Amino acid sequence: MSNNNTSIKNTRLSVAVGAALGILAATPPVMAQGPMLEEIVVTSRKVTENLQDVPISITAFSASQIEDAGIDEVQDFIDLTPNIILRETFRAGVTFVTIRGVTTGQQGWPPITYVVDGVQSASIDAINQGALFDIERIEVLKGPQGALYGAGAIAGAINVVTKAPTNEPEYGVKVSYGKGNNAKLSAMASGPIVEDKVLYRINAYYNDSDGLIDSIDGEDLDFEEQTSVRGSLLINASENVQIDLRAEYTDVEAGAAAQEIVPSADLIDTFNSTWGDPDRGLIGVEEREITNLSAKLTWETEPGTLTAVVGYSDIEQELWGSASWDKPPTNSIFGPVGTPGNPFADAYQSLRDDFETKTVDVRFNSASENALRWMVGASYLEREILNYLDVGFLISGTTPNNFQGLALVARPDIRTGEMWSVYGQLRYDISERMELSLSARYDEIDFDSTTYTDLSLSTPVPQPDPSGTPVNTLTASNDEFQPKVELSYNWTDDVMTYLTYGRGFRPGFFATGNLTLPETTDNFEIGFKSTLMEGRLRLNGALFRIDYSDQQFTFILPEPPFRGTTNIPETDIDGVELEFVAALSENLELSGGLGITNADVADGTTAPATPEHTGNLALAYTQPLSDALELYARIDYRRQGSFFMDAANLFEVEEKDFVNARLALQSDSWTVALFGNNLTDERQANSFTDFGVGFVRALNKPRSYGIEASYRF
Q1: Can you say how many angstroms the Cα of residue 614 is from the centroid of all Cα atoms in its chain?
Q2: How far is CA 137 from each of CA 35, 53, 695, rounded to the nearest angstrom?
Q3: Contact assessment for residue 448 and residue 475, using Cβ atoms and an 8 Å cutoff
Q4: CA 312 to CA 119: how far, in whole Å?
Q5: Which of 327, 307, 449 is nearest to 375 (CA)?
Q6: Would you tell me how many other CB atoms lie within 10 Å of the CB of residue 301?
Q7: pLDDT of residue 10
Q8: In angstroms, rounded to a whole number, what is the distance separating the alpha carbons of residues 95 and 128?
Q9: β-strands 685-690, 695-699: how paired?
Q10: Is there a contact between 515 and 482 (Cβ–Cβ < 8 Å)?
Q11: 147 — phi, psi (to 5°)?
Q12: 599: β partners
């Protein structure tokens, strides 16, 4: 990177910092008395707190905000959060998330900890499980959260809380229909089995869509059929003891491997009639079955509260598709096909990525009314991964159930990991206005990898260990102490500033037999949270500095094993975030955010998958039509800066602008809404790889629109 570009970046960062501090210092203008903003309660520090009292950079969405913004998948709330992007590539489980310059290392641990109802996931595949429905709250925590959430929360955490069973009967149904014959149906029922003692909540969701991405000759490539069922049972065993049981099952069959090929790298951002639709001889398909089970015990005692959470997750995924990207196929990543000398019909890829995870977390929180508050806890996580790669030439057949092939690589790997952790936190009110919080966690993880000759998993294939000695099972271990210090000061009841230091850690992993080193970050942050204009303006901001060591980065290879990993030794990251929500009048609300990140690698390049800036604005208008009826209109705009796909900075995605809109007629019991997503039809490469036969890219979703109706009673 040139000195001139670095200077420009630093100038932009300085301007943004000055603007943030200037807004905070300025005397707010006098506004007419109007409605106060909704208060948002979060559990980011494993206790219940007001969002504005937590010295962490958090973007939180309440149940009403989720409904108003039309959030029904992970991509939706990510796009409303600064300094974070998400890219889904050739299948649903391969989801790349980047927060503040820290991104996904495929086959390893995710860069964030994804928590649903207190149960921690252990794979990036668990983040994108399909539709979000019946959600009470979503919290996006930025910066390392390892002190409380453990190894893997190196970039942050996402805390999802589903709606709890109710003591009063509740029922609801929602239907929608959109572009691509996208039909959705969800239903909910909640109420008491034994009043005040045993409560239930059950949800069902179904989605059937032809998809939005078609091949050149009109074949549906990103079709999807999803069925999900979730149930929860809340047992009030006594006045002080509560048991929460939850179960969820999801079945998905969807189009996959719908990439297209372009002949040169400079076409990465070219979308037209020639390079705008994939060419496909075989239609790829992915099948996913996801099972989640959990049990939570809460026991309130005079000294404090004991909480124990046990979780189980099983994700089974199979993909089958073409390994060439033209029709009829003439060239594949393995060589020519469909020619007299190479009579194979095509080239194929058949993949399995299965994850089985077991988690246990036990903690004790002291009584919250004391000046000194503390928490101690311990956790255990165990995961087993089956990764099966079967690729080669296709002899006959066009589906995963009837094909015959000449396998060039057919190798299953079993990888296991066990993590033991102890953690604690001390929070002390130094004065009425100042709080000091000290958190720490120690993680120790042992992991291994065994390669077998076939799926019978009976005959291991010896692999060289670090000394070069062939062994049946490769083993390694990592451990790390992750401290965090938070000092906050309330200048008034409505303005708080904070300083934090936190250490982040992500364990190493084996990828196709190769060991990737663990990575660490040291995060320094100064921020503020404020509620101004008599509760009608919420303005939060943060400046951060991250010293990043041994960044894990995954890249695609044009030959077996097709996926490689490396460690980028040193990256310096500086950034700023600013978020606000303002009730401009009784009927009008404006919200938005700005994130700027400078992620400079020691070799002079920019860290991959890191936009220099992200920004979003939302304008929402409510107009009462009668005592029981109102009109709601909302428009969302997101600006995403350019970023590089690769560590060498050869493939750059240009700046993008995305627009969503929603118009609803609603009462206390029903809603009818029109919606549109990506209205400007902005296209983007979500991945871009040189496979030797051309540059293969996966695409984002094009413009979509539809109608939605819901009824609650």
Answers
A1: 16
A2: 22, 17, 40
A3: yes
A4: 8
A5: 307
A6: 11
A7: 47
A8: 7
A9: antiparallel
A10: no
A11: -60, -35
A12: 573
Residues in the chain: 713
The dihedrals phi and psi of 532, each to the nearest 5 degrees, come to -120, 180
The total of other beta-carbon atoms located within 10 Å of residue 75's CB is 17
Which pLDDT belongs to residue 558? 65
Distance CA 707, CA 713 (A): 21
DSSP character at residue 283? -
> Could you give the residue ranges of the DSSP H alpha helices within 323-431?
none
Cα separation, 568 vs 551, in Å, equals: 5
Tokens of 397: 């057949």
Residue with tokens 């958090």: 58
Residue 23: predicted pLDDT: 39
Amino acid code (one letter) for 463: Q
Name the stretches of the chain with pLDDT < 50.
1-32
pTM of the model: 0.91
pLDDT of residue 34: 60
Within the chain, what is the greatest distance between any pair of CA atoms? 83
Q: Dihedral through CA 673, CA 635, CA 211, CA 106, nearest 10?
A: -130
Q: Is the peptide bond before 561 cis (omega within 30 degrees of 0)?
A: yes
Quickly count: other Cβ atoms within 10 Å of residue 278's Cβ.
24
Which H helix or E strand runs over 20?
A: helix 3-25
Domains and CATH numbers, the chain: 3-712 (2.40.170.20)
Q: Specify the pLDDT at position 9.
A: 46
419 within 8 A of 476, measured Cβ to Cβ: no
3-state SS, one letter per residue, for 575-602: EEEEEEEEECCCCEEEEEEEEEEEEEEC
